Structure prediction request, 226 residues.
Amino acid sequence: MFKLTTISLWCIILISISCSSNKAPSKKETNIPQSIELFDGETLSGWKTLSFGGEGGQVAVEQNKIVFGRGEPFTGIVIDNENFKPPSDQYEINLRARKTEGRDFFCALTFPVPEKNACCTFVAGAWGGQVTGLSNIDHLDANRNSTRSTLKYETDKWYNIKVEITYGRIRCWIDDRIVVNTLIDKKIISMRPGAIEACQPFGIASYETSAEFESIILNKVSTISN
Prediction:
């Protein structure tokens, strides 16, 4: 009888442990937003305009667009929260951008890479208007690392820009064209030293170029596409 009672007692303990390990997610976990919209179409609420030492271009909201005037040389905005976090360690950024005047980059999108506890920048149209890539990878900027490519960006044409950050990889698209597909597991991710560092942790800048932006959205990536 004693043996049977002991066995029964252990069964009850094991079942209790098993059930307690399958707790429902905490409120904190379930309240994490799956999507973050960073532009309301009407104001710069949640953003700060960067002065770049008094030489930054003007920033305004007109006709549901963020409008960058041409800077000397930079124009930029940064999220007004130094502790800003994306919706997940794995996430994507979608925005629309166009160059309205100028011959250098119209969109330098700085974003956090949670896996590396660092930020880097996707640049579209740099070094004379065509260089596209990530700055920095292994301390090399987009004009000198393996993410470098060249595209011809037309003035006044809207481009859909997408950046996807997942474990071990960053991918970037211009419209339907993938322009960056790089493994980062064994690489150093960092910012290019200089004025662009002011765009951390999340910001947008242009260089001697006027530009417009709309529909800035971050979404959690639940599955990794190959």
